[in-house]
Amino acid sequence: DLKGKVESRLLSMWNNMKFGWTVKLKTNFSKESPVWLLGRCYHRKLSPSGSLESSTEIATEATVNDVVEQIYGEGIEGFKSDFISRIWMTYRREFPTMAGSSFTTDCGWGCMLRSGQMMLAQALVCHFLGRSWRWSPDKAIQNAREFQEDCLHRMIIKWFGDKSSVNSPFSIHQMV
């Protein structure tokens, strides 16, 4: 078992070097351009306002100015809130070994599985909680609806836990 752990760590280090992190220091992004995230548009010029649904519900008799305000109304704070509400699956290490292997990491080979897990997690969040749902880790739960939403969010995350368990049907252990 020690041999398997050593092999797994060496493989992980090799993959980190081989598929290493390359950072481009200079970007070509314009601070004046809107940012799109999963069909929602956010713009830093405008301050947050209104409900989260406003960007998707545009009345047929709305003026051009109404449409622009509704689309851009959430501002950059809305983008940040939306961004942190997405469930992220990344390479992991030191998880329980998978049946028939000595792997305790998915570094270097798990990218497609993690991408698939993220898409499935996003679909489940949209299905159970809606596209406008936001995770607010610093906000206290104030009513039964928020408690139920928090429980659903936690349950979805558990479904992707890296262990072989009936409580984690979408874990890497179940998928491989």
Automatic annotation (TrEMBL):
It comes from the Eukaryota. One of its GO terms (biological process) is protein processing. Residues 77-176 form the Peptidase C54 catalytic domain. Keywords: Autophagy, Cytoplasm, Hydrolase, Protease, Protein transport, Thiol protease, Transport. Its EC number is 3.4.22.-. InterPro entries: Papain-like_cys_pep_sf (IPR038765), Peptidase_C54 (IPR005078), Peptidase_C54_cat (IPR046792). It catalyses: [protein]-C-terminal L-amino acid-glycyl-phosphatidylethanolamide + H2O = [protein]-C-terminal L-amino acid-glycine + a 1,2-diacyl-sn-glycero-3-phosphoethanolamine. It is found in: Cytoplasm. GO terms for cellular component: cytoplasm. One of its GO terms (molecular function) is protein-phosphatidylethanolamide deconjugating activity. Cysteine protease that plays a key role in autophagy by mediating both proteolytic activation and delipidation of ATG8 family proteins. Belongs to the peptidase C54 family. This is Cysteine protease.
